[in-house]
Amino acid sequence: MDLLFLAGIISAAIIGWWHWEHNVKQTPFEEFGPEVVKRVLSFESDAFRKSILKRGSMTRAQWIKINTSQIKAIEAELQRRKVEK
User: Residue 37, exposed/middle/buried by CB under 10 A (0-12, 13-18, 19+)?
Assistant: First the structure.
């Protein structure tokens, strides 16, 4: 029983740490690269871009979501251009 309790505590700590790092912790733009952030945000809406730049940081989940959506848009555009030829 004690071993099960200890395993639960360790599992909860690992999940809590992962959640904190991915969804709560605000990472300053210096870690992502300020030039890269500005380039990536240039494709987003003005309101979203201004809110992110005003805050000066993003969570890893936001950064991944933005990059994933832009990759999908680029792939769709490449697919569209391939079909047109």
Answer: buried
